[in-house]
C-alpha cells in the first residue's frame, strides 16, 4: 500500500514538472503566439504613457548636423523659449518591468523635445537682477562672467545696464549661457 502511494506521488510530481517545462518553453518562444487584438485588454507598448516607460536622454550632437543625419536622431541644439523654437527628436524607450503590453518592450518614441534643465531659476535670477543687478549678480548667476565683471566695474553701467537687464530678463531675451532652459521648479 505504501509503495503504491509513493509511486502515485512520484508520477504526479514528474507529470507536473514536465507540464511546467512545456509551458515555460512555450512562453519563451520567439514566435508570435497571437495576433494583436485592438479591442483586447492589452495595448501596444509604443502607445503607453510616459509614466509606464523609461526613456534615455536625447543625444547631444553639439551643433553637428551631419552626425544627426547619419544617426537619424538626436539634438543639434538644446533649448528655446517658444514652442516653435524647440527641436524635437526620437529617443530609445523601455517599458517598466511589471507593465503588461503587446509588442516589443523596447522602441523609439518620436517627438521628444530637445530641452535640458540646469540650476537656473527665472524667479531667483530676476530677484538678483532687481536687487543686486548693479553689481552684476544676475549675469554671474547666468554664467556670463565676462559681462558680469564689466557690469560690476561700471556699477551697472551707471544704472542703465541694470535697467536694460531687468527688461531683457522679463522679455525672455536674456538666457543662461549654457543654452539650457529655465528650471520650472522654484
TrEMBL record:
TM2 domain residues: 122-167
Annotated Pfam families: TM2 (PF05154)
Positions of transmembrane segments: 121-140, 152-174
Predominant location: membrane
Compartments reported by the entry: Membrane
InterPro entries, alphabetized: TM2, TM2D1-3-like
UniProt KW keywords: Glycoprotein, Membrane, Signal, Transmembrane, Transmembrane helix
Record's protein name: TM2 domain-containing protein
Membrane association type: Multi-pass membrane protein
Coiled-coil spans in chain: none
The organism of origin for this protein: Vespula vulgaris (Yellow jacket)
Highest taxon listed in the record's lineage: Eukaryota
Amino acid at each position: 500500500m505504501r509503495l503504491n502511494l509513493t509511486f502515485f506521488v512520484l508520477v504526479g510530481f514528474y507529470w507536473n514538472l514536465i507540464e511546467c517545462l512545456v509551458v515555460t518553453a512555450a512562453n519563451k518562444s520567439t514566435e508570435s503566439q497571437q495576433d494583436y487584438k485592438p479591442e483586447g485588454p492589452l495595448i501596444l507598448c509604443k502607445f503607453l504613457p510616459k509614466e509606464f516607460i523609461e526613456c534615455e536622454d536625447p543625444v547631444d550632437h553639439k551643433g553637428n548636423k551631419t552626425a544627426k543625419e547619419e544617426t537619424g536622431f538626436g539634438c543639434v541644439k538644446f533649448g528655446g523659449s517658444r514652442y516653435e523654437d524647440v527641436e524635437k527628436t526620437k529617443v530609445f524607450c523601455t517599458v517598466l518591468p511589471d507593465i503588461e503590453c503587446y509588442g516589443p518592450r523596447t522602441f523609439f518614441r518620436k517627438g521628444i523635445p530637445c530641452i535640458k534643465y540646469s540650476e537656473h531659476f527665472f524667479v531667483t535670477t530676476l530677484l538678483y537682477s532687481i536687487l543686486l543687478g548693479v553689481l552684476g549678480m544676475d549675469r554671474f548667476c547666468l554664467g556670463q562672467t565676462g559681462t558680469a565683471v564689466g557690469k560690476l566695474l561700471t556699477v551697472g553701467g551707471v544704472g542703465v545696464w541694470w535697467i536694460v537687464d531687468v527688461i531683457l530678463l522679463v522679455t525672455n531675451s536674456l538666457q543662461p549661457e549654457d543654452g539650457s532652459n529655465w528650471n520650472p521648479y522654484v
